[in-house]
Amino acid sequence: MIDHLERVFAAQSIEDIWQLHVDKMAGYGFDRLIYGFTRFRTSNSFGNLDDLLVLSNHTREFLDVFIGQGLYHHAPMVRWAAENVGACSWSWIEQQSRAGLLTPTEQRVLAFNLRMGVRAGYSISFNDASVRSKGAIGLAARRDLHQRQVEEIWQDHGRDIVMLNNVTHLRITAMPYASERRSLTKRQREALEWVGDGKTTQDIATIMGLTQATVEKHLRLAREALDVETTAQAVLKASFQNQIFMVAV
């Protein structure tokens, strides 16, 4: 356990952290994971899909439908995670179904999961500090395991699994992340950092050795990359995504 945590804390990218976690969870019998995190949650949505960090080792066939076609919006365990904090057995879904508490759309999501061999597992919803933030992970058990066997695994190792997932979540959210389309260039990051420090465009031009027009161009391109209207919004969003004020590695 300590060796694994040391590797997680030493990892220098989200990809490395995620692969360590995938391998560790597979050792407990959870061989397909799907993790989601947003800092742009609203009262009725998780925000723009482009701003949602999704990590998974599910098949492309599964992800194209579940994420690509927006099926996750109607997934019972996603609803549970949005409304709760902690760990929840997927037996909850069966209980909800038997009680007639799943909507027809949620029943279709359940049927899709069953067709894809996603039958048994646990979900963990993280206790994030901001009301705008929400992170959760679904741990799908191996296809040969039934929920009864998963409950036995959880009885023996549940506390360790929850702790490992929370540590991984904290490490991932501390790393820079953005879609390729919304990733900032070095100059855009630097210009936004100086704005965040309260500098004017003329100040920034002097500091960076550029013309004021070039600084304004970098700020405009940063706004476009981040899909925001104002530079203040760009500073906030880039900060949320850990794209600025970060130590270079």
Short description, anyone?
By secondary structure, the protein is α+β, with helices and mostly antiparallel strands. It has helices at 2-10, 14-26, 60-66, 76-83, 91-98, 104-115, 147-173, 186-196, 201-208, 212-226, 231-240, and strands at residues 30-38, 53-56, 86-89, 121-125, 134-141. It has two domains: 2-173, Transcription factor LuxR-like, autoinducer-binding domain (Beta-Lactamase, 2-Layer Sandwich), CATH 3.30.450.80; 180-240, Winged helix-like DNA-binding domain superfamily/Winged helix DNA-binding domain (Arc Repressor Mutant, subunit A, Orthogonal Bundle).
What layout of secondary structure does this protein have?
Elements: H1 2-10, H2 14-26, E1 30-38, E2 53-56, H3 60-66, H4 76-83, E3 86-89, H5 91-98, H6 104-115, E4 121-125, E5 134-141, H7 147-173, H8 186-196, H9 201-208, H10 212-226, H11 231-240
Antiparallel strand pairs: 1-2, 1-5, 3-4, 4-5
Question: Could you describe the 3D structure shown?
Answer:
The protein is an alpha+beta fold and 249 residues long. The protein has two domains: 2-173, Beta-Lactamase (2-Layer Sandwich), CATH 3.30.450.80; 180-240, Orthogonal Bundle (Arc Repressor Mutant, subunit A). The chain has helices at 2-10, 14-26, 60-66, 76-83, 91-98, 104-115, 147-173, 186-196, 201-208, 212-226, 231-240; strands at residues 30-38, 53-56, 86-89, 121-125, 134-141. The chain has a five-stranded antiparallel β-sheet, sandwiched between helices. A hairpin with an 8-residue loop joins strand 4 (121-125) and strand 5. The two termini are 26 Å apart. The model has no long low-confidence stretch (mean pLDDT 91).
